[in-house]
Amino acid sequence: MRGHASLVGAYRPGSSLVHRTPLRIKLPVLLGLGAAALAFQGAAVRTLVLVVVLVLHFAAGGSVRQLLTALKPMWLFVLVLLAYQSWQNGPLAAWRILCGLLACVYAANILLATTPVQRLLDALAAAVRPLTRFGADPERFALAVGLMLRSIPFLVGSFSDVREAAKARGLERNPRAVVLPVLINAVAYARQTGDALAARGLGDRDDGGPPPRN
Asked: Where are the transmembrane segments (predicted)?
């Protein structure tokens, strides 16, 4: 399916400075840029944050096409949001919101594009490990995040393919022709994922409770 990596950028191997930067440094920097884009309301600050993120994107070997691809699934939402903000609060407010949104999206894509997913999951598991005293399971938490990172691109690709198939049949205005196949694909994907986890012993109950009913 196309569009699988639209929302979350796939890892792109490379030898750039951003690729070589340790995760313990890269993660706080990118999270800090995203937080700054949300915390500061000034247009000048948000513009500066976006410029820094774009510099990091190109320093990591990214291209203009990849910037546009990241926005493809959400271009209509962005367009409506900017039009509404321009109408209600003026062009400057729309620009401020656009800068904050783009900075967050591109910062997340930089992290995912320059860091192997397994390394990210290991870091998440390590971050959650101090919470084991409260009953948290770091490995299951990392597994859940990994499944989420796989599922979102799959659903985006499924929606894109179904919508184009409906358009080819002249049914693009029929919600059932789009929503129902996407739901069926999502359920089938969830069942396949559950079966794969169960086959590896990852879905077994270990809390002594009754087994799930079929």
From this structure: 29-55, 67-87, 93-112
Closest to 193 measured CA to CA, from 149, 139, 134? 149
For residue range 182-196, what is the model confidence (pLDDT) as tens digits?
778 777 777 776 676
Give the closest residue to 113 by CA, choosing from 149, 148, 143. Answer: 149
CB 49 within 8 A of CB 8: no
| pLDDT bucket at 153, cuts 50 / 70 / 90 | low
In the block, which residue shows the tokens 């198939």? Answer: 165
Predicted TM-score (pTM) of the model is: 0.65
Within 8 A by CB and 6+ apart from 6, the residues are 69, 70, 72, 73, 153, 156, 157, 160
- Among left, alpha and beta (phi > 0; psi -120 to 50; other), residue 172 is alpha
